[in-house]
Amino acid sequence: MNEKFLKPYDPKETEGRIYENWDKSGYFDPDKLPARHKEPFTIIMPPPNANGSLHAGHAVFVTLEDLIIRYRRMTGRKALWVPGADHAGFETQVVYEKKLEKEGRSRFQMEPDALRKEIMDFTLVNKSFMEGQLRSLGASCDWSREKFTLDPDIQRVVYSTFEELWKDKLLYRGARPVNWCTKHQTSLSELETKDKEQTDTMYYIKYGPFTVATVRPETIFGDVAVAVHPEDDRYKDYIGQEISIKTPIGDIVVKVIGDEMVEREFGTGALKITPAHDKNDFAAGARHKLPIIEVIDRYGKMNEKAGKYAGMKIDDARKAVVADMQEMGLLEKTEPYKHVIPVCYKCERTIEPRVLSQWFVKMKPLAEKAIQSIEKNEVVFYPDSHRKIILHWLNNIEDWNISRQIVWGIPIPAKICPDCNEAVVDVVDKVKKCKKCGGEMEKDPDTFDTWFSSGQWPYAVLGFPNKRDYKTFYPTQVMETAGDIIFFWVSRMLMFGLYRTEQVPFDTVYLHGLVTAKDGQKMSKSKGNVLSPIDLSEKYGTDALRMALIIGNTPGTSTALYEDKIKAYKHFANKIWNVSRFVLSNTEDMDPHNAPELVDEDKSTLRELDALLEEVTTDLEKYRFYLAGEKLYHYFWHTFADVLVEASKARLSGERGDAKSRKSAQWMLWTNLRVMLKALHPFMPFITEEIWGLLPGKNKKMLIIETWPHNIGT
Description:
Blueprint: H1 11-25, E1 40-44, H2 56-74, E2 78-82, E3 84-85, H3 89-102, H4 112-136, E4 147-148, H5 152-167, E5 171-181, E6 186-188, E7 193-207, E8 210-214, E9 225-228, E10 242-245, E11 252-258, E12 270-273, H6 279-287, H7 314-328, E13 331-344, E14 352-361, H8 363-375, E15 380-382, H9 385-395, E16 400-401, E17 403-404, E18 414-416, E19 423-425, E20 442-443, E21 447-448, H10 450-454, H11 457-461, H12 468-473, E22 476-482, H13 486-501, E23 506-512, E24 515-516, H14 533-540, H15 542-550, E25 559-560, H16 563-585, H17 600-621, H18 625-653, H19 659-680, H20 685-694
Parallel strand pairs: 1-2, 3-4, 9-11, 15-23, 22-23, 24-25
Antiparallel strand pairs: 5-6, 5-14, 7-8, 7-13, 9-12, 10-11, 14-16, 17-21, 18-19, 18-20
Helix pairs in contact: 1-20, 8-9, 8-13, 14-15, 15-16, 16-18, 16-19, 17-18, 17-19, 18-19, 19-20
């Protein structure tokens, strides 16, 4: 028996060495796998944001995807797992802005090129650090194929998609309401805002012959109409007329319009219409050809059209306007009003709708193909409940604003004429003059929404359209990712994949849930309940952390992570080590290449083991990783260790005086150990590979490319 077994198992001594051996073997590269690995099986890693350390959610996806790829590699698939990193646009810029604030600096005081260089340097350092953490978690991905969302070849694919959308008339630049964050000074997509319930004051204001109810009296200076339901008997005689409205800075004239968007039962049944500062009002204004008057600027302050209130912040202006209206006798009453408002998902400031010229993608034609594919079951979801969720979202999809007013990201390859606002896509930078007015064209200063580029990730990283990898490994098999980005990312990958390649980019979507603290609360620094997966793996071993993240983790639901749970699987790793030592010390005189004649009880034991493996294999094929892991854990500890090993001691010692029984027991234990090491390898790769390397035998391969066990009892 190898003298290493004289010491307790030490993950710190083992894991780095084992990973280096895997890396050197070349087996992470599917092109270097043995000849039996023929049919491709591909996973594209959801690229972690290259702006900080890995968190518990990252550890979940690394563990699950590594489990899948190791299992498929052992079953003979030409397994490719492509690693990557995301520049993460807005997310990373927000992180860097916080760093600048601590240093007493602001991005608004920096030249764009200087800021971009600083963020790039910051990102590349974090990217390298993060990749080391991925390795420490056992990620058996092909580092020779690693991709970054700002790599030149990725940007070329992104630009070609932008150009294709333009040619196919699925892209346009237009002035429409966008979600504007006054802190970060950029527009955001619908998915980058979150809903916040709050109670505000509803103000009932005299509005010419009407009374209108509003929570935003400060926008009255941008009002262009009052809307009523066309069948509301109270007001229908006014429809089409112009009326004069008193305001604290003078009278304005607005038009009375009839529109079915008005709910007769809400408020007074009459709505003031401010197209520049409300999405629904903008739509009504477009239907009725109304002008757009902006009275709030990009910083969330009243502009010059607000007269004496110019320069005030919105909340201050509201108070001042209400006080003046009250003094003028225009305020009839107030009441509390509970409603939901959109806020920036990063800073939680109230979103201020603004009408800006941005690039929009027409989403309905793209969504239609994705809907058809899902309905035909060309894409399977785990859990299946998310199929209905994504279909509902796709069926109600709106055009997507892909322009961001930030420095960090992929620049939009377009030109704009400042004289007439004409815009053209210009990937090769050759358009100098505006065809419409003859003016000088200027470079669009905006960058793409990061989800525009990452939505093209599966085919872009494989070298679409002509590279060998694209032709060999696309479409991919599994997209494993967090359930909370099903709309941000999964849906967009489906739409872009079908649009550019005419194939679904993956046939299976596995969505893991949120990793929570022991009490089920979300992990957050403010609560002081954040657990670092890297710290935990260093303390208890990566295998223990992985098992804690797999067992009990059903798709789509939250899973709790806490130290006691990980410590329990550290004990399990020790049990594997100790049982292996026992088996090897008691089989040293056995020929590992020739099976002896087995007694009936050992034949029965191996048939039971074979039945277990059939169950585990089915669970893995059906993406029931939590069940497969639990079954292997219980079998090893409660059957193999507690029953079989204990029952074999008398037979192994020769107390029963039966040489045949002793040899049979040796083979049964030896087979059990080999089989369990193989079956546990995708779950606990480090300790299983270490023990496998210590087993006796000729021409032994590394466990990472061993054959998945089956037909044990035959």
